[in-house]
Design goal:
Strand order of the largest sheet: 1-8-2-3-7-4-6-5-9-10-11
Order of helices and strands: EHEEHEHEHEHEHEEEHEEEEHEH
Protein name: Threonylcarbamoyl-AMP synthase
Distance between the termini: 32 Å
Catalytic activity: L-threonine + hydrogencarbonate + ATP = L-threonylcarbamoyladenylate + diphosphate + H2O
CATH architecture of the largest domain: Alpha-Beta Complex
Structural class: alpha/beta
Number of helices: 9
Largest sheet: 11 strands, mixed
CATH superfamily of the largest domain: DHBP synthase
CATH class of the largest domain: Alpha Beta
Family: Belongs to the SUA5 family.
Function: Required for the formation of a threonylcarbamoyl group on adenosine at position 37 (t(6)A37) in tRNAs that read codons beginning with adenine.
EC number: 2.7.7.87
Number of domains: 2
Shape: globular
CATH topology of the largest domain: DHBP synthase
């Protein structure tokens, strides 16, 4: 049995989904990044349902979504303070795939933030998602709408397949346009007392774009968080976004041995695709934006084949390629 699926293009469906959120239920909805599993962020009982549906450990915080602009609920509902750099980044990249980790307001339950004094917040660019947030009138805590640690969902069908009846309602907004998660930026106090931004999770807004917006280079953290400890950012554990099939990473498809029993995920067309049991090419022209949009769906298709193993070719280490390599590294971790 699966959740009811309604079209996000239908205003009546938006209204129904908003009512589910206000009443403490769970709604899966499409954004420009991936599909989220939403609950009223100010209702601890509703938030607990998110953790139960995903089998998500409570040390991993959730991202709170707001409609942005002058629409309620506003940022002050969940955030106690906005550093100058955070304000500049919000003005430049919201609505969009950027999450800011900020001091939390008292109204935000500890369950949302893993007991930390900070809360992760973003304003999505997806108009159906923002319509839902405006109609709900409450901040919505929403991690990816899948079982914890698995491949992120980029279509409503992925959500229905993975979570089934654990969700009250799925709003189908079509395939996600960006296709990978938001960039997460936190703020640390340096020796001089200034609050400096740090990329805690690479994502759809590149480090280069962030640096250009602030006029300086921003540090990017690519290490793994300690398992079991409260996480400042979601998606920072060593193993995440992972298929069921064992995955290895290579720099060139020609490195793969015994390819006849292996599925290949490639950025560009490989020189000899016929060597592989299956091959998914993400961009014939080397377009990282195109590759990101199809990344998770392609990985899902390969994983569904039941092959003994998969291999993926690493992406160029710049722009969106840095975020895609981060996802590959965590997906391949043992």
């Amino acid at each position: 049995m699966t959740a009811r699926l309604l079209s996000a293009a239908d205003p009546a469906a938006i209204g129904e989904a908003a009512a589910v959120l206000r009443e403490g239920g769970l709604v899966a909805f499409g954004t420009e990044t991936v599909y989220g599993l939403g609950a009223n962020a100010l209702d601890p009982t509703a938030v607990a349902k998110v953790f139960a549906a995903k089998d998500r450990p409570r040390f991993d915080p959730l991202i709170v979504h707001l409609p942005g602009g002058d629409d309620a609920p506003g940022l002050a509902t969940v955030v106690a303070d906005l550093p100058d750099d955070a304000r500049a980044l919000a003005e430049r990249f919201w609505p969009g795939p950027l999450t800011l980790v900020l001091p939390k307001a008292a109204a935000v339950p500890d369950l949302v933030t893993a007991g930390l004094g900070s809360v992760a917040v973003r304003v999505p660019a997806s108009e159906p998602a923002r319509a839902l947030l405006r109609a709900a009138g409450v901040p919505v805590a929403a991690p990816s709408a899948n079982r914890f640690g698995g491949i992120s969902p980029t279509t409503a069908a992925h959500v229905a397949e993975g979570l089934g009846e654990a969700v009250d309602l799925i709003l189908d907004a079509g395939p996600c346009e960006v296709g990978i998660e938001s960039t997460v930026v936190g703020f640390e106090t340096d020796a001089g007392g200034a609050r400096r931004p740090v990329v805690l999770r690479p994502g759809a807004v590149t480090a280069e774009a962030l640096g250009a917006a602030l006029g300086r280079t921003i540090e990017v953290r690519t290490g793994n968080a300690d398992p079991g400890a409260a996480q400042t950012s979601p998606g920072s554990l060593s193993r995440h976004y992972a298929p069921r099939t064992p995955l290895t990473l290579v720099d060139d498809a020609e490195e793969v041995e015994a390819a006849g029993a292996c599925g290949l995920l490639a950025f560009l067309p490989p020189p000899r695709p016929e060597r592989f049991a299956a091959c998914e090419t993400l961009s014939a022209t080397g377009d990282l934006t195109e590759a990101a949009a199809g990344f998770y769906a392609a990985l899902r298709r390969l994983d569904a084949l039941g092959l003994p193993r998969l291999a993926a070719v690493r992406f160029p280490p710049h722009g969106l390629g840095a975020a895609l390599n981060d996802r590959l590294r965590r997906a391949a971790a043992g």
